């Protein structure tokens, strides 16, 4: 019976520590598709970071109010291996198959539609798009890495840009 | 340790972490979780009210997303749902049939069509009609709301309508006139052997004041109401539900008829922005049918059948019509024999 009990506790520990997590510490960011450029979560945490509030609105108008996030600006990651020009774009690929591509205007200039807490469009201050690893002082819930848009006044932006479970980043050039 | 205590401890140790991993939102036996498309929110809230009045012991939970996301909640994001309803029935076989079968039938239960929504305050609102709308919405001083075709079915359907209108109105530059040089990367049209294909670039940004681009057609409603735009392509039921003026377009272009083609060529939209790994973003113009199914993973199949039964019943149809959605007199399924028996009385096969 003791052996059975030990076995069950072991199962519980395994389920609690791995089954409920998405990813873990071995998440890699593959910039420009070369394995040599892969970054671990720890590598990303070593890059210069920013902090700020951000919230999101989904396609049917439901709003998740702003909370504080901490992470690395996408420009910082892009510039690890590429020079940014006006033709630059950045493609984010998630573990669950979701993909979003951000234009220069978005990932460099922070050009996004923003809303107030009632969902009405407003003009927000300067926005920064980051690869967040911390949400409200804890690990990102839909992470360990998630694209998040932050700003000094806690902007609310469209949820389809908030890519969760980020697994790959590609630098792309867009022909205008 | 006594044997009884061990069993209880084992049960706690196994069940507690397992329940932590399941996540929220799973159906209880007395709840029915329904995930539906954004344009079905108002009709399904009305259906929910009618259903719960009829079956007071059952709680219907409605959650809404874009149609592709509706299905992905179950197929890729690990959610459990009892009923799925989408604005494009063809997404159900595309994303749920096959080797890893997650549904085996769908029922087309309602139709809709797109037209132009506006208000009395819209520029040229006293002039616009079914004959002159292309020239009105092309005017530089008109603010046209445009739903992003990369994210929203009504966005790519709007492009189909503009392309179909070129033939219907005898103006081969109509699409170009409406869109002009409004986007940083141009939307191009290619004439292929059996299709006219509208190519949407991966990055689509408005660089003019004429086109106001938003992620979904629902977002354009508040802009219309606030006078921030003059016109937007919207579904009829949504426009009427929100009290907007609605210009109906000819049935030959509004995606409400059975066939849409220009000189035997299909009209299609090819989107350079592959938003989901599981979806090839190539859409062909066809009649707008809403589709409903019960996923194989439903935790409350009896409740789900009861809900779909109510949706298809005369009572359900009347409720849908009350929210300006066109309920089909004879819903159609692709797999009559695969349907739950209780639903067969309502549908034909096709």
Give the SSE map.
The complex is a heterodimer of chains A (176) and B (350).
Chain A lengths: L1 H18 L21 H6 L3 E8 L5 E11 H5 L9 E7 L4 E4 L1 H4 L6 E2 L5 E2 L5 E8 L2 E2 L6 E5 L5 E3 L7 E8 L3
Parallel strand pairs in A: 1-10
Antiparallel strand pairs in A: 1-2, 2-7, 3-4, 3-11, 5-6, 5-10, 7-8, 7-9
Chain B lengths: L2 H20 L8 E7 L3 H14 L4 E7 L1 H9 L7 E4 L4 H6 L10 E5 L2 E5 L14 H6 L5 E4 L5 H16 L5 H6 L8 E4 L3 E6 L10 E4 L2 H10 L4 E5 H6 L3 E3 L13 E2 L2 E7 L10 E3 L4 E5 L7 H12 L1 H9 L3 E8 L14 E2 L1
Parallel strand pairs in B: 1-2, 1-3, 6-9, 6-10, 8-13, 16-17
Antiparallel strand pairs in B: 3-15, 4-15, 4-16, 5-10, 5-11, 7-8, 12-13, 13-14
Helix pairs in contact in B: 2-11, 10-11
Structural features:
heterodimer; A: 176 residues; Sulfite Oxidase, Chain A, domain 2; 19% helix; 34% strand; globular; B: 350 residues; alpha/beta; D-Maltodextrin-Binding Protein, domain 2; 5-stranded mixed sheet
- Uncertain segments of chain B of ≥5 residues (pLDDT<50)? 6-26
Secondary structural class of chain A: alpha+beta
> End-to-end distance of chain A, in Å?
70 Å
Largest interface: A-B, 35 and 44 residues
Helix-strand category of chain B: alpha/beta
The average pLDDT value of chain B, as a whole number, equals 87
Tell me what the CATH architecture of chain A is. Answer: Alpha-Beta Complex
Largest sheet of chain A: 8 strands, mixed
Percent helix range of chain B: 25-40%
First-residue to last-residue Cα separation of chain B: 64 Å
**Helical coverage of chain A, percent range:** 10-25%
Average pLDDT number of chain A:
80
* Element order of chain A: H for helix, E for strand: HHEEHEEHEEEEEEE
What's the Cα radius of gyration of chain B? 22 Å
Number of helices of chain B: 11
CATH superfamily of chain A: Oxidoreductase, molybdopterin-binding domain
Note the quaternary state here.
heterodimer
CATH architecture assignment name of the largest domain in chain B? 3-Layer(aba) Sandwich
